């Protein structure tokens, strides 16, 4: 077939963090050998840790329209190929990367290339995107993308595409990985079993983006996908669902069917799994090796302040022990600096980690993403440290800069205590111990902890610099 329309689908790197931690605040780049080592570590992190392909763009690239060829450009690994002739460039926009997306869009449009923007930021803030695009796609694009490509072929692209309703996930839409350069990635086995979240944690916008009703795919479609994927790529599977045990009955049925396929997998779950013994057993038997759990806070007052009420503080430790006992390693994500936190909170976090022997602790500060309830509240309270009127001023980095003033702790003391906390949690000794003690995937646990030892050193340097910058402003 002669392709007459060339379409690029673009995924952008974040400023730091999972796409390769780098220093953000001025003159903190170390000299000589250290710099060389840091850039080596950064590349290693990018290639081995979170380098998974964007499922959204895999889904769009799988939609076939006669006369259209789609190419996936992952700018975490390559420069945008400006030397090629493009009829349409689609960019996936996350809120923290909006300015990067707009910059690229403007550059392309100044060369006469048509640009379509889609993704979470477009769904939340379409008004901020219009000036940078020929076409906007709102919401989940599983159905709309076919219309966009068909209109491209007939030169009748519309300015906006909006779904009447979310796509019907019960329809079989096989995902192809033909557009991926497979060796770049840690794994290409990405699967989503459903969308939507019934909870409303105030720092998250998944329930706004995907709705509050959990919409699931058909179990036999998922099983087919896993079978097909595992034949092509023997590496680990990542179930990207925000809460893979959100519907325990569905999850149990699904993973029972996956046992014979003999895969290994990781995913994201709520700690309530520790009280779901049959599901836990099914997860372990179906090849689950690691789960990311959002602990967020062990302070009841903080959990209430931020509407994280689906798992109870007094049950957390027991649940974590039960999950680890089944052979599943845990990445437990905390947020220090929530509205109920005080200077005593770091010690409580340290005790909790020691008590539960969490394999990889993630010690985050709050990221008030525009469009979340917590962003609105902090704006009203005048606590944001970035311009809330400029939608592109929010950037997504790791714990390297404070984006708000904590409620109960003055900023300098907070930064000092956060730095002290990360210094105590992450060091080479702890990394080796956690690697040895993990119930499974010991090398990965060791690697993650070493990565964080490196990352939080950057975090401490950057936070100190940020404080100086704020002080002199
Ligand atoms: C897996 C995952 C990752 C993976 C893979 C990245 C990826 N996006 O594929 C990793 C670990 C690398 C990652 C990293 C980050 N992530 Co992430 N991640 C997710 C997660 C859990 C699932 C994403 C997914 O695969 N969804 C399934 C697909 C099918 O849905 P979708 O992405 O929404 O895409 C649909 C529409 O948005 C739209 N669409 C998307 N792109 C485009 C492009 C075009 C042209 C069109 C037309 C349509 C379109 O159509 C798609 C199909 O319906 C989501 C939470 C969630 N529920 O979505 C968070 C999420 C996307 N991540 C988020 C964030 C903040 C990050 C990081 C910045 C975190 C960090 N610490 O650095 C980085 C950024 C990395 C990057 N370069 O973008 C936020 C984004 C918030 C926002 N408002 O922008 C989310 C929503 C989590 C949250 N609770 O807030 N992430
Ligand atoms: S943090 Fe998790 S549980 Fe809370 S709203 Fe977001 S996706 Fe749902």
Descriptive notes:
This protein folds into two domains: 5-161, 3-Layer(aba) Sandwich (Rossmann fold); 187-472, tm_1862 like domain (pyruvate-formate lyase- activating enzyme, Alpha-Beta Horseshoe). The longest helix has 31 residues, at 442-472. The strands form three sheets. Strands 2-1-3-4-5-6 form a six-stranded parallel sheet, sandwiched between helices. The protein has a six-stranded parallel sheet with strand order 7-10-11-12-13-14. It has a two-stranded antiparallel ribbon with strand order 8-9. Strand 10 (237-239), helix 9 and strand 11 form a beta-alpha-beta unit. The mean pLDDT is 91. With 473 residues, the chain is of the alpha/beta class. It has helices at 32-48, 55-61, 98-110, 120-124, 126-129, 144-153, 206-209, 219-232, 248-258, 277-285, 300-305, 313-325, 345-356, 373-380, 411-425, 428-437, 442-472; strands at residues 5-11, 68-74, 88-92, 114-118, 135-137, 160-161, 189-191, 194-195, 215-216, 237-239, 265-269, 288-296, 329-335, 360-364. It binds cobalamin (B12) and iron/sulfur cluster (SF4). Iron/sulfur cluster (SF4) binds at residues 197, 199-201, 204, 206-207, 242-243, 294.
């Amino acid at each position: 077939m002669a392709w007459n329309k060339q379409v690029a689908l673009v995924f952008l790197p974040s400023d730091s963090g999972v796409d390769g931690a780098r220093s953000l605040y001025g003159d903190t780049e170390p000299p000589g050998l250290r710099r060389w080592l840091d850039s080596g570590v950064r590349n290693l992190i990018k290639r081995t840790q979170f380098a998974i392909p964007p499922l959204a763009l895999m889904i769009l690239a799988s939609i076939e329209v006669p006369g259209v060829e789609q190419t996936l450009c992952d700018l975490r690994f390559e420069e945008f190929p400006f030397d090629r002739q493009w009829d349409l460039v689609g960019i996936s926009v996350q809120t923290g990367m909006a300015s990067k997306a707009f910059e690229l869009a403007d550059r392309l449009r100044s060369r006469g290339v048509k640009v379509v923007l889609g993704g979470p930021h477009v769904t939340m803030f379409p008004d901020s995107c219009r000036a940078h695009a020929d076409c906007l796609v709102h919401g989940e694009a599983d159905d709309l993308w076919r219309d966009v490509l068909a209109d491209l072929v007939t030169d009748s692209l519309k300015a906006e595409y909006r779904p009447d309703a979310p796509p019907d996930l019960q329809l079989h839409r096989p995902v192809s990985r033909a557009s991926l350069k497979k060796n770049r990635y840690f794994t290409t086995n990405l699967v989503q079993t459903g969308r939507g979240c019934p909870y409303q944690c105030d720092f998250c916008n998944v329930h706004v983006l995907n709705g509050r009703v959990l919409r699931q795919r058909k179990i036999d479609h998922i099983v087919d996908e896993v079978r097909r994927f595992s034949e092509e790529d023997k590496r680990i599977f990542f179930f990207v669902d925000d809460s893979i045990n959100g519907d325990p009955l569905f999850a149990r049925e699904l993973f029972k069917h996956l046992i014979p396929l003999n895969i290994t997998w990781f995913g994201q779950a709520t700690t309530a799994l520790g009280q779901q013994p049959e599901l836990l057993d099914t997860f372990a038997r179906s090849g689950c090796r690691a789960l990311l759990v959002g602990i967020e806070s062990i302070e009841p007052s903080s959990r209430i302040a931020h509407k994280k009420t689906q798992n109870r503080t007094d049950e957390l430790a027991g649940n974590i022990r039960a999950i680890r006992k089944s052979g599943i390693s845990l990445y437990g994500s905390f947020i220090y600096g929530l509205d109920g936190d005080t200077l005593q909170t770091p010690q409580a976090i340290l005790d909790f980690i020691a008590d539960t022997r969490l394999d990889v602790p993630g010690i985050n500060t709050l990221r008030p993403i525009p469009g979340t309830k917590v962003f609105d509240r902090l704006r009203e309270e005048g606590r944001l440290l970035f311009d809330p009127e400029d939608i592109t001023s929010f950037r997504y980095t790791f714990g390297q800069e404070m984006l708000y003033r904590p409620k109960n702790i003055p900023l300098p003391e907070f930064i000092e205590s956060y730095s002290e906390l990360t210094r105590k949690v992450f060091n080479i000794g702890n990394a080796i111990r956690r690697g040895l003690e993990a119930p499974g995937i010991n090398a990965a646990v060791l690697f993650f902890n070493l990565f964080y030892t490196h990352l939080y050193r950057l975090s401490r340097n950057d936070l100190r610099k940020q404080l100086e910058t704020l002080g002199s402003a």
